[in-house]
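Long-time lurker, finally posting.

We've been working with Sulfotransferase (Brassica carinata) and I want a structural starting point before designing mutants. I don't trust myself to interpret raw outputs, so I'm hoping someone here can both generate the structure tokens and explain anything notable. Sequence follows.
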Amino acid sequence: MFWFKSLRDDIEVLDEPLNASFLKATGADRPHRDEIFASMRSSSMEVIHSWSCPRSLSTALMYSFAQRDDIEVLDEPLNASFLKATGADRPHRDEIFASMEIDGHKVVKDIIYGPGKKKYRFCKNLAKHRILGLPSELMSKGKHFILIRNPVQILPSFDKVIPLSFLDVGLADLVSIYSDLCQMGTPPLVIDADDLQRNRGFISATLRGLCDDLDIPFQASMLK
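Top reply, 14 upvotes:
Generated this for you. Predicted structure of Sulfotransferase:
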């Protein structure tokens, strides 16, 4: 079967995806049976995408999800692809290229939607990182929500890091992502970053509401 995949660059192949289900249902004894079960479980994780502009408390929210025992997190996995495609100048640009995958297709297929060991994977994304030409499954798969913050708070904060530009803030990209998800029939939940800075009770209610919308159980560890 894999020769078919090797001859095309627009197709992905699943090798006996029902194998583990067959072994479980029939009790058939096979070499490496336990490894087959483990590998099938690891490839079925749910991917959760957070989309925001810079300086929107997205890192704090990512750390909140990272406290869970059933999730792994990816911090801006498309950053290197964005820098390569746009030529944007950044401190430590070479180090980013050396430590991250640059090919956006590989990032989406092998890292964002690749196998993992936890039930969930949380991807903290900046809206501007959704560059043209990425695989459509970036948006068609997984669960997505949007984190917004008042530009009055974003702009002065971001200007302290790098000079402001329309490209770097990414407000238009965030609107585009919201519009595209709505057109796909999956309108995303929108979270106001201000709600993550209020009292503990309000933060708890916000995170519980987010988990409910994502159809995942809330864990109190998210409040740490």
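Before you design anything, note these points.
The first strand starts at residue 46 and ends at 52.
The mean pLDDT is 88.
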